[in-house]
Amino acid sequence: MDMNDEKKSVNENSKNEQLEAFRSRDNEDKVMTTNQGLKISEDEFSLKAGERGPTLMEDFHFREKVTHFDHERIPERVVHARGFGAHGYFEVYESMKPYTKAKFLQDPNVKTPLFVRFSTVIGSRGSKETARDVRGFATKFYTEEGIYDLVCNNMPVFFMQDAIKFPDFVHANKPEPHNEIPQATASHDTFWDWISQNQESAHMVMWTMSDRALPRSFRMMEGFGVNTFRFVNEEGKGHFVKFHWKPVLGTHSLVLDEAEKIGGKDPDFNRRDLWENIEMGNYPEFELGVQIIEEKDEFAFDFDILDATKLWPEEDVPVRLIGKMTLNRNVDNFFAETEQVAFHPGNVVPGIDFSNDPLLQGRLFSYLDTQLIRLGGPNFHELPINRSVCPFHNNQRDGYGRQTINVGRVAHHRNALANNSPYPVSEKEGGYAHYQEKVEGHKIRARSDSFKDHFSQATLFWNSMSEPERQHIINAFSFEVGKVKTKEVKQRVVDMFANVNLELAKAFAINIGCTPPSTGSSTVTKSSPALSQENTPKKAYTRKVAILIADGFDFQQVTEIIAALQAEGAMPAIVSDRQGIINSSSNNQLEAKHSFITDSSVVFDAVYVDGGKNATPVFQMEACQFVKEAFMHYKPIIGTNEGKQWIEKEKLGGSLGVFLGPEENPDFVNQFVQGVASHRFWSRVII
């Protein structure tokens, strides 16, 4: 070894010794402490004023834990990293004055500008958009009274009841730290280990294993405020409220095989769909709904209305539709708008206030704290996308990213040098005043007994599903838990969900090689039809239909069907074995902008195959594969001419949702268009 090699070896050893001092081998059999070494007596509950009271600021353990979690990623969002946004406006249908004094909910003639960001939750910015996941649905209203942020998910409940558990949940759900595998999926050991050890997650897991976790489009996705808020009117009377976004197009989903293939074909599938439809003028619309409970009825239900793992069944607490949001403009710059937008549930206006929901109480700290690290300091509100449309005046100064050039020497309150300005105003003059609620109780880390039922609403969800939806849930458990390597974790999950529904647990236990449970604890028979997508609105509007043609196609027949689809707002797209001009048998032409190389059936909602007299054997083979895949995904299919012959050759003719014509059925075009609106034919027999 020469001197250079020896010096290199010494340097490497020195560096390794230096790193070794920072290595923490493991936490097994160790007492939990704060980062300052203080032993912790409780890590399940945040510190509250009474079991159902608000979270206290003095909870240093909660603040340290969540602050550390909020600052774990630079600069990507810890969660909701993969998102896409659009601009729009909101109009209220009628004044909500009896319930709230919020001005943007008073006048139907006022359009309130807004910005919406849709997102996946667990994947990184580069992950696919069609992963099985919760979706974020956050809306920033630029009201005349200031910014109001309605931060929703596409599921009405959450994995936990108390925000102190959020870092643990996300750590368990993210790629495992020793090898950074897997990306954007719950199909691994640490996630299911956490689930099986935190059984309050049962209801949310049922939603995540359902079709709701695979939305067909952001435009066809519900939004839920999850937490319980308050409306407060001018007299100071409060009502508990939950918020809903209802898509005008209905709520629709992909099937798992479709979602996985789209992730490879087009990982930007959902954002591309939103962008293209807005560019074409197919503006997405969502109605804002509210569920309202009078304060006197706070304890009138068989669940705690402050429990974020519980929904308010719509049959018991109806959703009142109070306004509509229209998204009509794409962003000009993704980074400046979508990436820099900052939401916070604490951005409220007079007339909207908070409840003691312990998950919400934690969010009121966490969101603001997250923005401080992600956007570089306290002045993120001055970025154009976050800036209020009404003026703002206060004594905040300096900090990273300051854009306002404040003049004068006064930056304190109270003051005489500037006539005591800026100055607070009374509630009657528009000043925000928190809802006055009597709070009593011992300072305690605990949870109310009213939060202890973890399975009844999970069973309610199962009972509410159609048979196809139930089978999809069984398939999802079989896939996700089947990926788990630790047998003990798999068995704990099976045993846990026997408390939701015994047949469900037995079905996926067999599929993943576990011991099927013999008993379950659920006695719930109630169902909620509002929870099933089978009962959602169904329209052909903006549905994408693949038109498969080759040289020698029937121009009159094809253009007739295209016209019928377009009359209902569907979007036909010509697909062939090549891009470019395709010649018909009558010497007319259509342009194919899609080919079998660039697209497949999974990115379309329905398929029409006419074929062509001059179709090559390769075209026929590709077209048949295209149709068979659509058939397996329960999509509507129509065939004419050579296409009809190929469908019959594949023995698909006569199946539900497969339309052949015109000889067999003169009304086949109208029936197909209606089939496109139906979205899927779940009763189809798959051969």
Automatic annotation (TrEMBL):
Q: Return the PROSITE patterns for the record.
A: CATALASE_1 (PS00437), CATALASE_2 (PS00438), CATALASE_3 (PS51402)
Q: Which SMART domains match?
A: Catalase (SM01060)
| Presence of the UniProt keyword Iron in the record | yes
Q: Which cofactor does it need?
A: heme
Alphabetical list of InterPro entries matching this protein? Catalase (IPR018028), Catalase_AS (IPR024708), Catalase_clade2 (IPR024712), Catalase_clade2_helical (IPR043156), Catalase_core (IPR011614), Catalase_haem_BS (IPR002226), Catalase_immune_responsive (IPR010582), Catalase_large_C (IPR041399)
Q: What is a GO molecular function of this protein? A: catalase activity
Give UniProt keywords alphabetically: Heme, Hydrogen peroxide, Iron, Metal-binding, Oxidoreductase, Peroxidase
Q: In its keyword annotation, does this UniProt entry include Metal-binding?
A: yes
Task: State its Enzyme Commission number(s).
Answer: 1.11.1.6
Annotated stretches, region: Disordered: 1-30
The UniProt record lists the Catalase core domain at: 33-421
Q: Which catalytic reaction applies to this protein?
A: 2 H2O2 = O2 + 2 H2O
> What does the protein in this record do?
Decomposes hydrogen peroxide into water and oxygen; serves to protect cells from the toxic effects of hydrogen peroxide.
Assigned protein family: Belongs to the catalase family. HPII subfamily.
Q: What is this protein called?
A: Catalase
Source species, please? Cytobacillus eiseniae
